[in-house]
Amino acid sequence: MKRPEGFDPPARQPAPNKSAKPAREPRPAKPAREARPAKPDPARQSSPRETSAPAPPSPAPSPRVPRPSRQPAPDAGARAELRHAARERRKAERAEVRRFTRRTRNRRVALAAVAGTVVTLIGLVLTAVYSPILALRQVRVDGASRVSADEIVAAVDGQLGTPLALLDFTEIEKELGAFPLIRSYVTQTLPPDTLVIQIVERQPVGSVAAPAGGFELVDPAGIVLQQSPERIPGVPLIDLAGGTVSDPAFDAAVEVLLALPPTLLAQVDTISAHTQDDVALVLTGVGQRVKWGSADESARKATLLAALIAVTDPAQAGEFDVSAPSNGVFRPA
Known about the structure:
Elements: E1 2-3, E2 6-7, H1 76-100, H2 102-130, E3 138-142, H3 149-155, H4 169-176, E4 182-190, E5 194-201, E6 206-209, E7 215-218, E8 224-228, E9 237-239, H5 248-259, H6 262-265, E10 268-272, E11 279-283, E12 289-293, H7 298-310, E13 318-321, E14 329-332
Parallel strand pairs: 3-5, 9-10, 12-13
Antiparallel strand pairs: 1-2, 4-5, 6-7, 7-8, 10-11, 11-12, 13-14
């Protein structure tokens, strides 16, 4: 090293080892350069009136998406557990779906049941109306004694072959109305092919003299049931003294006859009524008479008359007076 006094004397160096490599001396560090001020660029300098535009911001770097790490492949047991878990999850999801849609399913089931019932009923109605299987082939008449059942069947035979649901009951009523002995009737259809007609016949209450001669059997309504040139046995003769069945006297006589018990009614030969207040009876046998009066309280009068007949000699002619139901008497002839 150079000093002001001169150079240092060289020091003794150890004997070099031929096998070892000589160490490199370190290079002297270069002196650092002083920073010089940058020269202004006249092209970039702006005039005092102009302002430099700010530099646009640099775009932010996009975030790096981490790559999924590779998982080791599951073994057979793990795969089975995964499949079982997936099945359980699907089963739970289906259960939840069913639970939340139960009301809708019930509504659909109810609507389907109602629709099926309606369709079935419509099919049955169409079968009953138009099917020849349920056509009328037999007519049965019940309750006919005085009127002929065969005549009734012949009157309605125009309905044969018609389905039971399409029977013309207006026409049947018209045909049966031609029988005066029929008071009322009831029809009933018995599938597959039978029509039952239940007859209620008019019951005769007595006979009256016909205007043209002979006698007419009438019911309580005055309907003529039978005509005969001679007096009809088994029923009392109603004497209206020239009146008709439309007079009040006829109604009073019928009311008295209907109030009599069957045993007492069988003993009545004739009943007469000129007005509705002077009804009188003639009994069979010796012709005992009964003064009845009006038709009021006929049931009490009938009971009183039966009691008087029971204590009176049937061979004794006379007259029973029951016009006052509280005091009946028998006056011998």
